[in-house]
Specification:
The protein is of the alpha+beta class. It is built from 4 helices and 5 strands. The structure holds the ligand C[C@H](O)[C@H](O)[C@H]1CNC2=NC(N)=NC(=O)C2=N1. It comes from Microbacterium kribbense.
């Protein structure tokens, strides 16, 4: 059976939880680890120090290049840019908000979008 549209998780509930942990919605407020964990779609990402990171198991360089292309498009659209390392078997991504000196809502939103792009390309992630 053809895949239907992906069911959206309880976005409103996630947003409420997220806002509770991170203060005002939006903007470049620093987010706590709990706030990050409350966000939707970031299960691939680990929170360490002042950044979040994920490792995508692409399996070969050409697939890594395709994932990087998708990441670059998302980053440019958001004007928010990750550090990306493309190697033969995997792509490592690190996100932090340089202007704020830590993790903000922009990192959360881009992290979720990158995880979705990887899923759309059939690419898995190492457990966070
Ligand atoms: C001028 C430009 O909008 C800023 O430098 C943007 C560009 N991309 C960015 N990316 C990230 N990760 N953090 C930032 O603070 C940031 N700032």
């Amino acid at each position: 059976m053809a895949d239907g549209p992906r069911p959206r998780r309880g976005a409103s509930a996630d947003r409420v939880a997220f806002t509770a942990h991170s203060g005002r919605v939006g903007g470049m407020d620093i987010i706590t680890q709990d706030g990050f964990r409350a966000a939707a779609g970031v299960g691939d990402w680990r929170f360490a120090d002042d950044a979040v990171s994920a490792v995508f198991t692409t399996g070969d360089f050409a697939t890594g290049a395709r994932l990087f292309e998708a990441i670059a498009a998302l980053a440019e659209a958001a004007n928010h840019h990750p550090d990306v390392e493309v190697t033969y078997p995997k792509v490592q991504v690190r996100l932090t908000s340089h202007d704020a000196g830590g993790v903000t809502r922009k990192d959360v939103e881009l992290a979720a979008a990158i995880s979705q792009a990887a899923r759309d390309l059939g690419i898995g992630a190492e457990p966070a």
